[in-house]
Amino acid sequence: MSQMSTIEWTDATWNPVRGCTKISPGCAHCYAETFAERFRGVPGHAYEKGFDLRLVPEHLEDPLNWSKPKTIFVNSMSDLFHKNVPENYIEQVCWVMQKANWHTYQVLTKRSERMRDFLDAHPEFGELKNVWWGVSVENKKHGLPRIDHLRTAPATVRFLSVEPLLEDLGKINLKGIHWVIAGGESGHGARPMEAEWVRSIREQCAAKGVDFFFKQWGGQQKKKTGRTLDGQTYDAMPERISLPVLSRTERMELIEELKA
């Protein structure tokens, strides 16, 4: 979908699915919905249908066309595990991640139970070292159970996106978790985040040896509030594996196989 991204913890975004529906408080001020709905009804635009969920199979091949290794956020404008995304389509997305393995992929969901069940049925995808599987955690009620689902999924790298952080999460079970991103909500109507909530997460990550990334304070003008915590920037991430890029001929053959 896009070879460039302004998201601090990734290089690029790839959206073989567009659109979503709200399922928890973290969705209330969804940036993706706000962006997509601006273009509803604009003929020929990628979001002509606004934020209605739809598959975009013509973009399945995108990572195979990108010869420079990237860290790719999968479905920044959707949720791969939405109930209306067919399982065989999820398998196709995973097949591309498996074949275009010179990239590192970050798959983030709020539908953690479906992701866990999918990976249980397809452990070969969960075990890919170039794919990081993550869940969103905005509060105790909705977010903490997702961590338990993620922990039991057969995955090599597991991460949490604690954004927007809406309350103090208390003690978090970080067993089996490799990376935590934390951040406040941004944009119009952004809900406030307390510094102590973030410090608690940072300290728990440090105690368990989990990489910690502080994304932003947020607010209506996130550039002004910045992303330093107690005078320091936190950018830790899991180590990305380095694999050779396939030749153009090999990549074109895989694209033809995908289309078959």
Task: Give a description of the structure.
The protein has helices at 31-37, 62-65, 87-99, 112-121, 123-126, 140-152, 195-208, 222-225, 248-259, and strands at residues 12-14, 17-18, 54-55, 71-74, 104-109, 131-136, 157-162, 179-183, 211-216, 228-229, 232-233. The protein is an alpha/beta fold. The protein has one domain: Alpha-Beta Barrel (TIM Barrel). A 7-stranded parallel beta sheet has the order 1-4-5-6-7-8-9. α4 packs parallel to α6 (140-152). The longest helix is centred in the C-terminal third of the chain and has 14 residues, at 195-208. The two termini are 21 Å apart.
| Count of spatially separate domains | 1
- Quickly give the CATH architecture: Alpha-Beta Barrel
Whole-angstrom Rg: 18 Å
State the CATH class. Alpha Beta
Largest sheet: 7 strands, parallel
Strand count = 11
| Through-space gap between termini | 21 Å
How large is the share of residues in beta strands?
A: 15-25%
Protein name: Phage Gp37/Gp68 family protein
Organism: Gemmata massiliana
Pfam families: DUF5131 (PF07505)
How would you concisely characterize the structure shown here?
The protein is an alpha/beta fold. It is 31% helix and 17% strand.
Furnish the topology, listing elements before pairings.
Elements: E1 12-14, E2 17-18, H1 31-37, E3 54-55, H2 62-65, E4 71-74, H3 87-99, E5 104-109, H4 112-121, H5 123-126, E6 131-136, H6 140-152, E7 157-162, E8 179-183, H7 195-208, E9 211-216, H8 222-225, E10 228-229, E11 232-233, H9 248-259
Parallel strand pairs: 1-4, 4-5, 5-6, 6-7, 7-8, 8-9
Antiparallel strand pairs: 2-3, 10-11
